[in-house]
Amino acid sequence: VTEDKIKEKMIIDEKPMGKGETLLVVEDEESLLRMIQTMLQRLQYTVLTASSAVQAIEIAKVNGDKIDLLLTDLIMPKMNGIDLYHEIKNIKPTIKCLFMSGYTDLVLHENIINKEANFLQKPFSMLEIAKKLRSILDEK
Asked: pTM for the whole thing?
């Protein structure tokens, strides 16, 4: 076992893990949706996935009581992430949310969300999403 392997293992061990929470991930780009799903499952989260806002709302109607957090892309066809969050919040008022986007300049420029909002810039690392999710889920 090399020193690099030991360091790599320590970094992996430092990732804040899920505590059995269920996340609903909404991403219209299929390959990205699968990658995020894999990351989150490795972090010990239960993951429900949707490739559209319409599909996400249907999943929330069926599983709303189980979902702890909505992880959604901000910019999607038909309905943006903020409108989707409000729709799902009507189904489950206590749901938490983390928005993600690759279009940060647009997001901040248009004041779509404020900088303090739960936001993650794409692309993100497994460590970044792990830390962000734990901080949101652990908020009282």
From this structure: 0.85
